[in-house]
Specification:
Elements: E1 4-12, E2 18-27, E3 32-36, H1 43-50, E4 58-63, E5 66-67, H2 76-81, E6 82-85, H3 98-110, H4 112-125, H5 141-153, E7 159-163, H6 171-186, E8 190-194, H7 198-203, E9 206-211, E10 213-218, H8 220-224, H9 227-232, H10 239-246, H11 256-266
Helix pairs in contact: 3-4, 3-5
This protein binds adenosine-5'-triphosphate and magnesium ion.
């Protein structure tokens, strides 16, 4: 059974504009799925629908085979299973200290003692235990991002919906998030990630390109072997892929290491 099945999902904001039109998307258990598309394509809207924060104007969403309804919004079981990392950390941090923010969900779920313990553990995992007593508003952009990741992780969700998780992060922290996603993958968690970050997209098992409607579904490798699609998604083509195109080599390398292997084989 798929974790999510979206059938003909359309969404119109009260202003009258359609953010999504007839979207069919499936998310299988344990897979890492990338959603890419230009600014304003409806990616965040799509994640909000998956998190049951808004209901589609048309079409339906199934979560673990059951229809998502208004009741799902406040369903404890659903909230426990699905974690949503918002694009903007400011939406997620509202307490007086980082620790309180990260403990908010766990305390609600498991009570004060265990909740606080879980929060401290998560801060440690993200190597931000030094931020525990800071006011969220006083944090830098990257620190806020890590604090909001901690707030999602502390609930131990099975399904992670991540909206631009590496934006605002420096190289070391981007690598850290990539490693975390790899770990979740090996633990069998389901990850749906919206991103323009090529290194993150490469990690995915499958990718969808959307721009109000679905333009493409396939592996990241298939995506990067179609430059016209990459352009429509407003993504950079990796330098190494451009070099291979220029050299007339058909294979599409997903990393420098892979490119080296291909070239060695050819020599
Ligand atoms: N609350 C809202 N009211 C009216 N229109 C909205 C609202 N939120 C988003 N939109 C519009 O819906 C469309 C899709 O927005 P959405 O935030 O889903 O795009 P996105 O793909 O996440 O873009 P980005 O890459 O910039 O984050 C855009 O045209 C946007 O202006
Ligand atoms: Mg967005």
């Amino acid at each position: 059974m798929s974790v999510y099945e979206l059938r003909g999902v359309s969404y119109r904001y009260p202003t009258g504009s359609w953010a999504l039109k007839g979207v069919d998307i499936r998310v299988e258990r344990g897979e890492t799925l990338a959603i890419v598309g230009p600014n304003g394509a409806g990616k965040t809207t799509l994640l909000k629908i998956m998190d049951a924060l808004i209901m589609p104007t048309e079409g339906e969403v199934l979560f673990e085979g059951k229809p998502v309804t208004e009741e799902t919004m406040t369903d404890r079981g659903f909230r426990r299973k699905v974690g949503f990392l918002f694009q903007s950390p400011d939406v997620m941090l509202f307490s007086a200290t980082v620790l309180e923010d990260v403990a908010f969900g766990p305390v609600h779920l498991w009570g004060k003692e265990k909740g606080l313990e879980k929060a401290r553990e998560t801060l440690k995992l993200l190597r931000i235990e030094n931020l525990a007593d800071r006011h969220p508003y006083s944090l830098s952009g990257g620190e806020k991002k890590k604090a909001s990741i901690a707030a999602v992780l502390s609930m131990e969700p099975e399904v992670l919906l991540l909206d631009e998780p590496t934006r605002d992060l420096d190289l070391r922290n981007r690598n850290f998030v990539l490693e975390m996603i790899k770990r979740w993958k090996s633990e069998g968690k389901t990850v749906v990630v919206v991103s323009h970050d090529l290194r993150l997209i490469r990690l995915a098992d499958r990718a969808y390109v959307i721009n109000r409607e679905v333009l493409f579904e396939g592996t990241p490798r298939e995506l990067f072997s179609r430059p016209e699609l990459v352009e429509r998604a407003n993504l950079d083509v990796p330098e190494i892929v451009r070099l291979f195109h220029r050299l007339g080599i058909e294979e599409v390398p997903m990393s420098v290491e892979e490119a080296a292997e291909i070239l060695k084989r050819m020599c």
